[in-house]
Amino acid sequence: MDVTLLRHATLLVELDGVRFLVDPMLSDAGANPPVENTPNQRRNPLVDLPDAVTDGDSALAHDAVLVTHRHTDHWDAWADAVDPSTPVFCNPADAEHFEADGLTDVRPVDGGETFEGVTLHRTPARHGHGDLAEAMAPVCGFVLDGTESLYIAGDTVWYDAVPETIDDHDPDAVVLNAGAAQFLEGEPITMTAEGVANVRDHVSDGTDVLAVHMDAINHCLLSRDDLREAVDDVAIPDDGETVTL
User: Fold this and answer.
1) Is Hydrolase tagged as a keyword (predicted)?
2) Which of 56, 80, 173, 201 is in the most buried spot, having the most CB atoms within 10 Å?
3) What pLDDT tens digit does each residue of the chain (245 aa) get?
4) DSSP bridge partners of 210
């Protein structure tokens, strides 16, 4: 199983020969306005995609697309790489919106869906706390289950459903959206360094933990360097880096 971080939460996961493009945000740097009501008012994305992607390399070649939710930093400029007939797996609550985008093979994941030998399970996520989490919904994560298994937690904070998902599926690896995304008011809405450490401490021995979702969007205030200083035994890939699990 290979996991390549393209940028932010955009991943290419290769499992049992099947390539899943996850949460494609393919905009050029500065194409979008900053997330409002945040301390750092820079235009998004903060950085461009790696050269291997923009130079027309096969880095974006995929068999299916997986989208945890439709916020702009997870689903933007997708038409640059996603053919409308590509299978797109998503939260049932988002299905009609993808169809309105012109996609013709939308596959909402309710229980478990199987694609070319890999089973996809939708998992719960909480994008913040209290009323803010309700306003940021719907969001979800996914477990990809083949010869090995991968838990993509999506935009979530550490709460009871995260360790429950780990216990239920016992994944070989976990990808966390860190960055401690923050508004001027309220608590962070994605994983903090403490949340990442909680996951690392909860998983089984030998389970890999990867942290992404940093250094690309203006309200993600926890940087890779900050996280490296705060936690051990967590892979923190750079943009364009492939982690073989």
Assistant:
1) yes
2) 173
3) 999 999 999 999 999 999 999 999 999 999 999 999 998 999 999 999 998 787 766 789 999 999 999 999 999 999 989 999 999 999 999 999 999 999 999 999 998 899 999 999 999 999 999 999 999 999 999 999 999 999 999 999 999 999 999 999 999 999 999 999 999 999 999 999 999 999 999 999 999 999 999 999 999 999 999 999 999 999 999 999 999 99
4) 175, 235
Q: State how far the Cα of 76 lies from the Cα of 176, in Å rounded to an integer.
A: 20
Residues shown for the chain: 245
- The CA distance from 4 to 11, in Å, is 6
Question: Which run of H or of E encompasses 202?
Answer: helix 193-202
What is d(CA 21, CA 70) in angstroms, rounded to the nearest whole number? 14
Going by C-beta distance under 8 Å and a sequence separation of 6 or more, which residues neighbour residue 53?
6, 26, 59, 60, 240
- Does the CA dihedral 77-5-71-41 come out positive or negative? negative
220 with 191: CB under 8 angstroms?
A: no
Spatial separation of the C-alpha atoms in residues 74 and 61, rounded to whole Å: 18
To which CATH superfamily is domain 2-237 assigned?
Answer: Ribonuclease Z/Hydroxyacylglutathione hydrolase-like (3.60.15.10)
Percent of the chain having pLDDT more than 70?
Answer: 99
Q: Is the peptide bond before 124 cis (omega within 30 degrees of 0)?
A: no
Is 211 in a helix, a strand, or coil? strand
- Hey, which residues does 88 pair with through a beta bridge? 65, 106
Neighbours of 88 (CB within 10 A): 26
CA–CA dist 30, 110 (Å, integer): 35
